[in-house]
Amino acid sequence: MSDPNTQTAARIDLLLVADMVQPGARVLDVGCGDGALLEMLTRDRKVDGRGIELSQAGVNGCVAKGLSVVQGDADTDLINYPDDSFDFVVLSQTLQATRHPKLVLERMLRIGRRAIVSFPNFGHWRVRSELMFKGRMPRTETLNYSWYDTPNIHLCTINDFVLMVDELGASIDRAVALDRNGSKVRVNAPWWLWNLLGEQAVFLLHRKRG
């Protein structure tokens, strides 16, 4: 049986992403999985939604729901989209599974006027305590894999992500950190506190266009 806290946090993550998307916008959901977010956006925000998903099973499930989804790889296929193809490009809980996360984010910001990224925070205090006191790779609700079978190959912290955004010359329009129970970490808290208390984070970004 799944942890109800995990379900709550995941649901709030989807709602936060959806809340950042303007109604009627053109949206590309990268790594859309079973299409839960894309379905929500199409139904509740009336978006013109498209998806790209690596697994054939995920694509089949999305198509069965009537969603416009193609099979593709975030690392290699975003290059095929022209500049400003979408109003929003979303990468939900997938950044850490990409081979070239900085390049993926750079391409998202090129093809979308806004990018929304959510990811698990490897700087959370539970992760730190697992390493410090048990000497083992952490396994938490948001990082629920053993080290030898995890799809997460580029784990990062909230601080790491903020630095990468700065290196890309992008701006943060909105950011939210969620604790273990899916509650928001204090909005005006400094990044280091978000990095300590947030199990996951959601960022709305745009590229500065000169």
DSSP summary, beta strand count: 7
How far from one another are the termini? 51 Å
CATH superfamily: Vaccinia Virus protein VP39
Residue windows where pLDDT falls under 50 for at least 5 positions? 1-10
Report the sheet with the most strands, covering strand number, pairing sense and barrel closure: 7 strands, mixed
Task: Give the radius of gyration.
Answer: 16 Å
Overall CATH architecture: 3-Layer(aba) Sandwich
Helix content: 25-40%
Round the mean pLDDT to the nearest integer and report it.
Answer: 89
Residues in β-strands, percent: 15-25%
Strand numbers in spatial order across the main sheet: 3-2-1-4-5-7-6
Task: Write up this protein.
The structure is a single chain. With 210 residues, this protein is α/β, with parallel strands linked by helices. It has one domain: Rossmann fold. 37% of the residues lie in helices and 22% in strands. It contains 8 helices and 7 strands, in the order H-E-H-E-H-E-H-E-H-E-H-H-E-H-E. A 7-stranded mixed β-sheet has the order 3-2-1-4-5-7-6, with helices on both faces. Strand 4, helix 5 and strand 5 form a beta-alpha-beta unit. The longest helix has 17 residues. The N terminus is likely disordered.
Q: Nutshell version of this structure?
A:
The chain has eight helices and seven strands, in the order αβαβαβαβαβααβαβ. The protein is α/β, with parallel strands linked by helices.
